[in-house]
Amino acid sequence: MAAFTLLGLSLALGAAGAGVSAYGQHKAGQAAKKSGELEQQAAESDAQLDEYNAGVAELQASDAVQRGEEEANRYRQGVRNLVGEQRATFAASGVVADYGSAGEVQHDAEFLGELDALTIKTNAAREAWGYKVSAYDLRQKAAITRKAGATRAAEGREAASAANIGAATTLLGAGASLLEARYNVKHPH
Q1: Euclidean distance between CA atoms 189 and 183, whole angstroms
Q2: pTM for the structure as a whole
Q3: Which end of the chain has fewer CB within 10 Å, C or N?
Q4: Other C-beta atoms within 10 Å of 7: how many?
Q5: pLDDT tens readout for residues 81-120
């Protein structure tokens, strides 16, 4: 009877060990799944921040263009004021402002002033382009971050499935070992 009790105790301990092992595998799989889900949530938060920053960059691009237009218009007004002062100075000196050197000076001031105004607008457009590129980059980064998060979540689910299969295999193996030990049944290898 002692041998039978010892065999029963051994079988019970083997079954308990297999159960603990299977439970540990299951819990590890669930932890991997939860970790993947948390990584996906963190990735989504990062992606949303990148999307927000892309929107801000687009607003900055619009603002740059608008500021450039306003600055160019102020500059043009300043040139018109300068040309008006030149005309008044020429007229006060008794020079006909529309002809000869006086006319050329005013024409040159207007021409160079317009070039400067266009340069202001071009610089603003370049600044806006930089913001638009930044917005595009941030949106691409957001998409990549989301994909990485989805991949981590999928890896976590796969790890959980593999752990559950491992747990089931452990329990089946333990059951087979118990049957073999209890009934002296051999399974073919």
Answers
A1: 18
A2: 0.70
A3: C
A4: 12
A5: 999 999 999 999 999 988 899 999 999 999 999 999 999 9
